[in-house]
Design the sequence.
């Protein structure tokens, strides 16, 4: 296996062991003929996730370019595998008369239960009312976050799910046909979010999935677009990554949130979480308006809140 660490790059033993393990798994995963769910695929990605879940101080932005290139490719492979996994289980769920009664068959359903609770907790800490409309960008064939939020926490909210893939939206719609409530509150739009402008002003909250915008430039363009067209005071919820989990998901830095006031960055620390992991950071920001407020951080969680002045 070729070395990715240049002679001039200094890393400690913990980082070196992590990088060696991730590189080894990257080569094995990239050599697979298919990323569709099977024993070998599941085993390799489970090993990758378990390698990256434990807290690690590594800053991937300081890694040499060969490692940066490997990381970018690995994130795309993770995204492909995650999409194929969701497609697989969306098809299985659609075979039931009432698909939403069987969500527990998805092996990582409990992760989404925790994720939605975290989302709801953060929102209620910073909003005086429950949102009537939410947009989820990058919902995919199995829109678990929308489902759990709508079912468990936001019983009157309408969800507008955006995805560029018409097949993903078609598969997702099938899951709600038999549900008298969610079939009316779960709407799907097949379009690139960069083509959505005036409609964005209708949403009180916009979620941006971790794998929408697979590199920094693309992610930044999407955030700038949302900042341009979202309504003043609306919330943007981002999924990002920190430490070793940045080998699995793209990273969003506070400096990337131009046009928004950063409210909260939440760092999950649950190492017992079943793979695949939740993205390591939860970032809540609001579209800048004339009046900027400083929000208090959530209690008993590792996070921070800052003010950013509107330009």
Sequence:
């Amino acid at each position: 296996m070729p070395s990715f660490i240049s002679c001039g790059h200094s890393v400690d033993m913990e980082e070196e062991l992590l990088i060696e393990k991730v590189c080894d798994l990257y080569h094995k995963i990239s050599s697979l003929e298919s990323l569709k769910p099977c024993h070998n695929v599941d085993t390799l990605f489970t090993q990758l996730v378990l390698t990256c879940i434990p807290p690690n101080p590594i800053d991937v932005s300081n890694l040499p370019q060969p490692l940066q290139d490997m990381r970018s490719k690995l994130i795309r492979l993770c995204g492909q595998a995650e999409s194929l996994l969701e497609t697989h289980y969306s098809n299985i769920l659609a075979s039931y008369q009432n698909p939403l009664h069987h969500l527990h068959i998805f092996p990582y359903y409990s992760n989404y239960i925790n994720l939605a609770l975290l989302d709801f907790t953060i929102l209620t800490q910073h909003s005086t009312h429950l949102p009537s409309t939410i947009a989820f960008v990058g919902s995919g064939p199995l829109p678990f976050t929308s489902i759990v939020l709508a079912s468990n926490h936001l019983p009157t909210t309408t969800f507008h799910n955006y995805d560029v893939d018409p097949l993903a939206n078609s598969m997702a719609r099938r899951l709600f046909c038999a549900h008298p409530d969610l079939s009316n509150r779960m709407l799907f739009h097949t379009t690139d979010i960069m083509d959505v402008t005036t409609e964005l002003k209708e949403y009180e909250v916009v979620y941006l999935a971790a794998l929408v915008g697979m590199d920094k430039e693309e992610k930044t363009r999407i955030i700038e677009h949302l900042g341009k067209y979202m309504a003043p005071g609306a919330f943007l919820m981002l999924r990002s990554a920190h430490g070793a989990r940045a080998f699995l998901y793209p990273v969003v830095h506070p400096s990337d949130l131009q046009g928004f006031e950063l409210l909260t960055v939440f760092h999950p620390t649950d190492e017992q979480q079943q793979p695949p992991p939740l993205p390591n950071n939860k970032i809540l920001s609001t579209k800048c308006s004339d009046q900027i407020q400083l929000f208090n951080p959530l209690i008993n969680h590792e996070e921070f809140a800052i003010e950013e002045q509107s330009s």
